[in-house]
Amino acid sequence: MTLLVPCEKCIVAAMISVSMTELKANLSRYIREARQGGEIEVLDRGTPVALITKPKPTPKPSGNDAHGRFNPFVSFSR
């Protein structure tokens, strides 16, 4: 579904545009595409209304556990 355009040293993926009806009918497919780094533009009657992309990684704050909760027993380095 993604259009790959070769260049000398890279591959550029083109954005996919889908209607809301198409998105609802094939949501799993488009989520899989976004998870792999693709971008899906959602159209409502031909007008762009949303962009589905893979989320950017967020840094975990120190002193918190894996779920973001404060852990007073974590040692802090100086």
Q: For the residues shown, what is the average pLDDT?
A: 79
Coarse morphology: elongated
Unreliable stretches: none
CATH class of the domain at 15-52: Alpha Beta
Give the helices and strands as they follow along the chain.
Answer: EEEHHEE
Q: Based on DSSP secondary structure assignment, what is the total number of beta strands?
A: 5
Q: How would you summarize what this structure contains?
A:
By secondary structure, this protein is α+β, with helices and mostly antiparallel strands.
Could you please describe the fold and organization of this structure?
By secondary structure, the protein is α+β, with helices and mostly antiparallel strands. It has a domain at 15-52: YefM-like fold. It is built from two helices and five strands.
List keywords for this structure.
two-stranded antiparallel ribbon; alpha+beta; three-stranded mixed beta sheet; YefM-like fold; 78 residues
What is the topology?
Layout: E1 4-6, E2 11-13, E3 16-19, H1 20-25, H2 27-35, E4 40-44, E5 47-52
Parallel strand pairs: 3-4
Antiparallel strand pairs: 1-2, 4-5
